[in-house]
Amino acid sequence: MRFSTILTSLLLCAVGSRASPLEPRARANVVYSCTKPNTAALTFDDGPWVYLYDVSKALVAANATGTFFFNGNNYECIYSADNQKRVKYAYDHGHQIASHTWAHKDLTTLTWDQIHDEMWRVEQALQRIAGVVPAFMRPPYGNFNDLVRDASGLRGQTVVIWDFDSGDSVGATPAQSKASYDQLVSRRPSNVLALNHEVYERTAHEVLPYAIQRLQNAGYRLVTLAECLGMQPYQSVGAPGTPDASWTC
């Protein structure tokens, strides 16, 4: 085995909060849409938060799954007792969990070391709480550059954006979000990768049930992001850890 291959393998195993941009790496792929026909991936950013349970229940009741892109310290610390329960609940109910980075910062404004810090801290939290290392990362605001792609690639991740935005995070009313889903269904794309946010009560209780019904009636299977791409959701799956004093924000 060549030295460069050995070095890259060691870096992928050991990378943490710091890594030099001179280290060998493969730039991460960026996905904007699903690839499997007649699938729709409903994704939810900015949690874990109080409406996660209702989002999950609405999906499960419709025999559907979703994908939650979690922050580490956005609305509340991911290590709080309530948020640990929410993360476990989503994972245990068949949904995919993924990285939305630690503190929801615009990664394009950060240095190499700061980008890695935003990434590894939430990855560590998900591994501690649920036992999984996520294979997907959605950058806050959808903002990324080559440095972000290089950092994600070094961490073994795929960068995820979306091809449909419900508009809830930029002030859309439930009626406007529903109308956007109506317009989406009327176009009948082969597949859908939809951006929603679990932190808004009206998204969870008004928009989501409507979106589920409209998409399923149009013939879409509501699946996880990984399933709609034909990829694995996690880089590794193991046993959760035991909380201690280091589980803090």
From TrEMBL:
<keyword id="KW-1003">Cell membrane</keyword>
<keyword id="KW-0961">Cell wall biogenesis/degradation</keyword>
<feature type="signal peptide">
    <location>
        <begin position="1"/>
        <end position="19"/>
    </location>
</feature>
<dbReference type="GO" id="GO:0005975">
    <property type="term" value="P:carbohydrate metabolic process"/>
</dbReference>
<dbReference type="Pfam" id="PF01522">
    <property type="entry name" value="Polysacc_deac_1"/>
</dbReference>
<keyword id="KW-0378">Hydrolase</keyword>
<dbReference type="GO" id="GO:0016810">
    <property type="term" value="F:hydrolase activity, acting on carbon-nitrogen (but not peptide) bonds"/>
</dbReference>
<keyword id="KW-0732">Signal</keyword>
<keyword id="KW-0119">Carbohydrate metabolism</keyword>
<dbReference type="GO" id="GO:0046872">
    <property type="term" value="F:metal ion binding"/>
</dbReference>
<keyword id="KW-0472">Membrane</keyword>
<dbReference type="InterPro" id="IPR002509">
    <property type="entry name" value="NODB_dom"/>
</dbReference>
<dbReference type="InterPro" id="IPR011330">
    <property type="entry name" value="Glyco_hydro/deAcase_b/a-brl"/>
</dbReference>
<keyword id="KW-0325">Glycoprotein</keyword>
<keyword id="KW-0449">Lipoprotein</keyword>
<keyword id="KW-0479">Metal-binding</keyword>
<feature type="domain" description="NodB homology">
    <location>
        <begin position="38"/>
        <end position="223"/>
    </location>
</feature>
<protein>
    <recommendedName>
        <fullName>NodB homology domain-containing protein</fullName>
    </recommendedName>
</protein>
<dbReference type="GO" id="GO:0071555">
    <property type="term" value="P:cell wall organization"/>
</dbReference>
<dbReference type="GO" id="GO:0098552">
    <property type="term" value="C:side of membrane"/>
</dbReference>
<dbReference type="GO" id="GO:0005886">
    <property type="term" value="C:plasma membrane"/>
</dbReference>
<keyword id="KW-0336">GPI-anchor</keyword>
